[in-house]
C-alpha cells in the first residue's frame, strides 16, 4: 500500500482531475467508482481495478479492509490518502472512503441489432440515464446505445444511479441511432405522448429496440418516424407524462411480464 500526503503530488492531481472533469474522464478513458457497493460489484463482475484509493479513516472499516485484503492478496495497487485529500476527490457526501480507478470500455457498433436493446436519444439527466441502465439490467437487457447528446454513462452520477448495472451491460456511446434503427433486425418501439397505440396492446414477446428521448422534447422526429411502433403508456391523474426513467421501467417490465405468460 502506497501513501500520498501532499496535494502537489502528480498522481494525486490526476485523481482530482479525474473526479471533477468529464472531459478528463473521456480523454483518459478512465473513471472513478466511489463507494463499497460499486467497488464490490466491480470486483465480482469485472475483476481487479487499475487502482484502489482509500481514506485513512476507511482503513478501520471492516468492509473496506475486506476489499483491500482481496486486492493486496492479488498484488493490486492500493493508495491511501489522508481524509482531507480523499474528501477533496470523492463526490459522495458522508461516503465510506473507498473508490476504484477503472478503465471505461470503448465499444464500436458491429452487427445489426438482433436482441432487445435500449437506445437513448439525447437523454441528458445523469440520474435518469443511470436509472434506465439499472432497470434494463434488472429486466435482462444486455445492450445500451447512446446518442452523442446523452449523458456520459461513466460519469459519477450515472454510475451511482445505476448501482453496478454498468458491469453487466454492453454500453455503446456516441452512436448514430438513425443508422442503428434503419439496419435493425428487431422491432423498434418509441414512446410518445402523442401516440394512439397503447404499450399494452403491442406483442413484446420478441426482441425489441426500446427508444427513449430527451426529458422535455422526447424522441427526435426523424427517429420517431423510423420506429416500428409509437406507443403511449396510459396513466390516470392530473399529470402530463411519466418521467423518462419511470417510462422505461414500465416498458421493460411489461416485456418481462409478457415473456413470462
Uncertain runs: none
Number of discrete helical segments: 10
> Over all CA atoms, what is the radius of gyration?
20 Å
Outline: elongated
Task: Characterize the structure shown.
This protein is of the alpha/beta class. Helix content is 37%, strand content 20%. The chain contains 10 helices and 12 strands. It has helices at residues 10-20, 22-28, 36-45, 62-73, 83-89, 126-138, 156-162, 177-183, 221-226, 244-259; strands at 2-3, 30-34, 51-55, 78-81, 98-103, 117-121, 143-146, 170-172, 187-191, 197-198, 208-213, 229-232. Strands 8-7-6-11-9-12-10 form a 7-stranded parallel β-sheet. The chain has a 5-stranded mixed β-sheet with strand order 1-4-3-5-2. α1 (10-20) packs across α2 (22-28), α6 runs parallel beside α7 and α6 packs parallel to α10. The longest helix has 16 residues, at 244-259. The N and C termini lie far apart (53 Å). The mean pLDDT is 95.
List keywords for this structure.
five-stranded mixed β-sheet; alpha/beta; 261 residues
Short account of what is shown:
The protein is an alpha/beta fold and 261 residues long.
Amino acid at each position: 500500500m502506497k501513501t500520498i500526503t501532499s496535494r502537489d503530488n502528480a498522481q494525486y492531481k490526476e485523481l482530482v482531475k479525474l473526479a471533477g472533469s468529464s472531459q478528463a474522464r473521456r480523454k483518459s478513458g478512465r473513471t472513478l467508482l466511489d463507494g463499497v457497493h460499486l467497488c464490490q460489484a466491480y470486483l465480482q463482475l469485472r475483476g481487479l481495478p487499475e487502482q484502489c484509493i482509500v481514506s485513512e479513516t476507511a482503513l478501520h472499516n471492516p468492509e473496506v479492509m475486506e476489499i483491500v485484503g482481496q486486492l493486496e492478496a492479488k498484488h493490486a495497487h492500493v493508495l491511501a490518502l489522508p481524509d482531507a485529500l480523499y474528501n477533496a476527490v470523492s463526490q459522495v457526501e458522508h461516503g465510506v472512503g473507498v473508490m476504484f480507478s477503472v478503465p471505461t470500455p470503448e465499444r464500436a457498433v458491429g452487427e445489426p441489432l438482433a436482441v432487445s436493446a435500449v437506445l437513448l436519444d439525447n437523454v441528458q439527466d445523469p440520474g435518469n440515464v443511470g436509472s434506465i441502465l439499472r432497470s434494463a439490467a434488472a429486466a435482462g437487457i444486455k445492450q445500451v446505445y447512446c446518442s452523442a447528446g446523452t449523458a456520459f454513462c461513466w460519469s459519477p452520477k450515472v454510475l451511482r444511479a445505476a448501482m453496478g448495472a454498468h458491469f453487466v451491460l454492453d454500453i455503446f456511446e456516441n452512436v448514430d441511432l438513425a443508422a442503428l434503427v434503419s439496419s435493425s433486425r428487431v422491432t423498434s418501439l418509441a414512446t410518445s405522448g402523442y401516440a394512439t397505440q397503447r404499450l399494452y396492446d403491442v406483442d413484446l414477446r420478441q426482441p425489441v429496440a426500446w427508444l427513449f428521448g430527451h426529458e422535455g422534447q422526447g424522441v427526435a422526429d426523424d427517429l420517431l418516424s423510423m420506429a416500428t411502433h409509437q406507443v403511449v403508456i396510459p396513466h390516470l391523474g392530473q399529470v402530463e407524462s411519466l418521467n423518462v426513467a419511470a417510462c422505461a421501467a414500465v416498458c421493460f417490465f411489461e416485456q418481462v411480464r409478457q415473456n413470462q405468460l
